[in-house]
């Protein structure tokens, strides 16, 4: 079955801040928008940021961390799986706009089934994002 684009709606504390982060810093094309939401093209997927004023101007969405490969992986999180070359290029770009990585770009499960490049960072509202890169997505994505 061919992959189809996903739709993900997340809460943000400030629409202008979300536009600056996702649109300007990350360079995601903007689609439709209104006063309280914005659609972004996240590598061909529809990411919608919805205003939640209850978070507060300096607040963050709640998260916990679970241990994976010696790191505290934030939950919830979302992101995109890329081919390895695109992941490497995006990791280099991310170093220019991410102020602090939750998990710096590195190779997880090196030499094992499912070897992948990965990195985690947060948007200004505290939403955790993970971007993964595989040399062969079809065989490695669900490798055990």
UniProtKB/TrEMBL annotation:
CDD domains: VOC_like. PANTHER family: PTHR39434, VOC DOMAIN-CONTAINING PROTEIN. Residues 4-134 form the VOC domain. It comes from Microbulbifer aestuariivivens. Coiled coil: none annotated. InterPro entries: Glyas_Bleomycin-R_OHBP_Dase, Glyas_Fos-R_dOase_dom, VOC_core. Gene3D superfamilies: 2,3-Dihydroxybiphenyl 1,2-Dioxygenase, domain 1. This is VOC domain-containing protein. It comes from the Bacteria.
